[in-house]
Fold this protein.
Amino acid sequence: MKTSKHNFLLILGLTAIISFTSACIEEIDTPEDSYENPELSTEVKIYNPDAFYEGYTLYAPLGSTTTYLINMEGNTVHTWESEYTPGNAVYFLDNGSLLRTENTRTNTRFKNTGGIGGRVAKYSFDGELIWSWDYATDEYCLHHDIELLPNGNILMIAWEYLSQEEAIELGKNPDYIDEQGIWPDMIIEVATTGSQGGEIIWEWHQKDHFVQDFDESKPGFRNISQSTERIDINFSERISADFSHINSIEYIEEYDIILLSSRNYSELWMIDHSTSSQEAAGTTGGVRGKGGDLLYRWGNSTAYKSENSSQQQSYYQHNATWIDDLPNNGGNILFFNNGNKQNRSYSSVDEVYFTEDGNGNFYLASSENSTAVWSFTHTDLYSESISGAQRLPNGNTLICEGIDGVFYEVNKEQEIVWQYEVSQEKSACFRATRVAPDHPGLENKKI
């Protein structure tokens, strides 16, 4: 009897221990199981946690007043609300605030043009409006993109209005002037003041750097192929007031250079930021002695009537970014090469290496001196407008196919490791940006 009772107690004790151990194992395993089988939103189409760059993705649908931050599972973790739709870029800053372009649609001349903005605003992480500045009249209007400088100032792109008569006086062919005149681009540097103010402290105007071979009685008449530092006012015979359409701006701090993407010229341009505003209006001054003339251009040699006009490499591109701050990238530029149905019926993301002398002196009209080092495309990648690409710290690239609102993360081997499709009714997005999990703007923030 004692032996049976002893065995019974031993079995009972072992059963309790096994039950307790099993319960502990279940508790320990639960988080790991959740990670291995996360709850994905229906918008996530490809999910490879072993290959993608962990973080959050920031985007602002062009038809929405909401800016979204989503996790890798496609779930919204934070939003910012505004009374305005974007116009077009948004940026998450190191202090946790959101810097946002906004489409106020308050002026009549520019209001129906793609990329229109008119206002830049900053919101706290909790959505409070901290600062705003409006720059929109019938004479000028902000559009597309901005760039926050290390000193806290902001570079902005704007159109400025020139009448038909003013355009003709600059050598524009009157057969190709819109009834609204022409809207050359300008770049302004704005110092923020107070909660609703800004002061323009530097400016560059495209109109100061035109060249033309149409009317020898007008300024800037010369051989265009021998004036590659200038911009041909008659390059496009398409009748459009917005004939240049600069859609992205990037500051290269190492060289104090501004990188611009001109969609309608299918070119990347570089200008010198080391000039004064007066020097930027001319052809001398600045550390390179060229004033506001183009330091470099690339992508479409027909824009300056080159004999090598068959070498067009860029087609209506967007979002040109300088990526020399990442490992093994030297002087590389990454951009979304849109294409169009007439000339190039697919899109790609291209990374191009540019030759320079170590002091930021690139070589004008030197398509031969640039080398494509990486490119990605596939049968579903196509967007005639908007769109962008971001090189991530692990070497992957986050791509925004703008018109359809589809985001791809691809690795260097061109494999798609993450894909998300915006589900909002108005899904078109200017860009998507990955925010690292250790981004300083997220420190001590609840998301």
Observations:
- The first strand starts at residue 44 and ends at 47.
- The longest helix spans residues 2-36.
- Confidence is low (pLDDT under 50) at residues 1-35.
